[in-house]
Amino acid sequence: MTGKVYLIGAGPGDPGLFTLRGVACLREADVVVYDYLANPRLLSYAKPDAELIYVGKKGGNADAAIQAEIDRLLIEKALAGKVVARLKGGDPFIFGRGGEEGEELFRAGIPFEVVPGITSAIAVPAYAGIPLTHRDYASTVAILTGHEDPSKQTSLIAWEKVATGIGTLVFLMGCGNLQSIVDKLLGHGRAKDTPAAVMHWGTKPEQETVVGTLDTIVGLAQMRGIGPPAVLVVGDVVRLRERLNWFERRPLFGKRILVTRTREQAGRFAELLEGQGAEVVEIPLIEIAPPTSWKPVDQAIERLETYKWIIFTSTNGVEEFFRRLQALRLDARRLGAARVCAIGSATAGSLERYNIIPDVVPAEFRAEGVIEALKPYDVQGAKILLPRAEVARDLLPVELEQRGATVDVVPVYRTVKSPTAGDILKPLLQDRKIDLVTFTSSSTVTNFVEALAQEDLKAICEGVRVACIGPITKETAERVGLTVDIMPQQYTIPTFASAIAEYFAP
């Protein structure tokens, strides 16, 4: 039975510009065939068992897949009954060879669908603060290839017409031919003082923009070492960049920030940092694993009705506790009349997803805050359940027991170190490619140090800023010899991201 092929535009690079239709198609696909310019983060939308095939064609790469092989691959997979997502940078029908691939699929009798993407011709100038049209500067725009098929006998671009007949010219894939493009424009009458801009890796955190005129842009681009992928814009609209350059003015633009949280929890934090312009490098230093034994948890669940209080100290504790309840075919009703305390708004939010509204959320999001928040309550003789990590501070249970409570501490999860983190982490720090390291728990600090075993911590972290989510994590970092530069007033992920942005703001 013949499958189907989706020709999907991956957009210009920023994964936030990917379309909802593209997401739906990736989730349906059995096979994903993706390009060099398609952001790898989009692959997270694919099914866990989807086959991922890289066919990126990159300038100067002798091993790059040729187009005929890509066409053959799409046809072969579809004829095997697979749903294929062909993920292409930008828009598939704007210099993306989507039309050629569609023709091949048509000839093979394979059904296909085109999912447009936001083309870099529009998005990249917008992220550089350059509108392609403006009532005071340009009423016409043309999108041209800067890399025509070298087998053509003559150019299909009417240089004598576009050079002076169009207000704004946008050239895609023109970096390698920049001098030739400029020569043709000047040779056909475009003024040498016409503003021009070259944008490298547009819409991504590493975006770099060079502004000049047709007379100077080649030299400026060479001086800055600008290479592909790049977009060239020629026209008076380039003058507006000085006022409209919003993307590169964000506080974390150009900063490469290491996020060490678990892979499952890193997403929201990464989004907040990227929203402020950062390039996020995710290296999970910890992984969440089941406790050594479920027996203490299961015994506590059997007698849940005997507890007066249940205290959750983290979102992980909430998720793993309720996951165990579900595994035992039980639900939130099992908590009965027990009062619930949650350390932090994020933990409270996790509880609310299970329709549990905490009775107490301390103002200070750590054990000391819980102790203070429970002072108005009589816990003498009360049984308290504390589902938490296998290794954690004993301050809370000790203080509550001193007040006369009986505290059952049951591990619902444990954190284990990533076995491969060090192999990725060391080269990044050695090559000075990290501006800031973020820690969201003491275990991330401990595993960071262990991942850098045999390294001089002070030397390898020279020039790297350190951010910790709260005082306990900060104390752990300082104990191992790190200098902590950033800590938020409130110990939540949103305030943590805000504190980082404020620190780097000009």
What can you see in these coordinates?
The structure is a single chain. By secondary structure, the protein is an alpha/beta fold. It is 34% helix and 19% strand. The protein is built from 19 helices and 19 strands. It has helices at 20-28, 67-79, 98-107, 120-127, 159-165, 178-187, 217-224, 241-244, 263-275, 295-302, 315-327, 345-352, 367-373, 395-402, 421-430, 442-451, 457-460, 471-479, 493-504, and strands at 4-9, 31-34, 51-54, 83-88, 112-115, 141-145, 168-172, 195-200, 208-213, 230-234, 256-259, 279-282, 286-289, 309-312, 339-342, 383-389, 406-417, 436-439, 465-468. Helix 16 runs parallel beside helix 18 (471-479). The mean pLDDT is 89. Keywords: Methyltransferase, Porphyrin biosynthesis, S-adenosyl-L-methionine, Transferase.
Topology (SSEs and partners):
Layout: E1 4-9, H1 20-28, E2 31-34, E3 51-54, H2 67-79, E4 83-88, H3 98-107, E5 112-115, H4 120-127, E6 141-145, H5 159-165, E7 168-172, H6 178-187, E8 195-200, E9 208-213, H7 217-224, E10 230-234, H8 241-244, E11 256-259, H9 263-275, E12 279-282, E13 286-289, H10 295-302, E14 309-312, H11 315-327, E15 339-342, H12 345-352, H13 367-373, E16 383-389, H14 395-402, E17 406-417, H15 421-430, E18 436-439, H16 442-451, H17 457-460, E19 465-468, H18 471-479, H19 493-504
Parallel strand pairs: 1-4, 1-5, 2-3, 2-4, 6-7, 11-12, 11-18, 14-15, 14-16, 16-17, 18-19
Antiparallel strand pairs: 7-10, 8-9, 8-10, 13-17
Helix pairs in contact: 9-19, 11-12, 13-14, 16-18
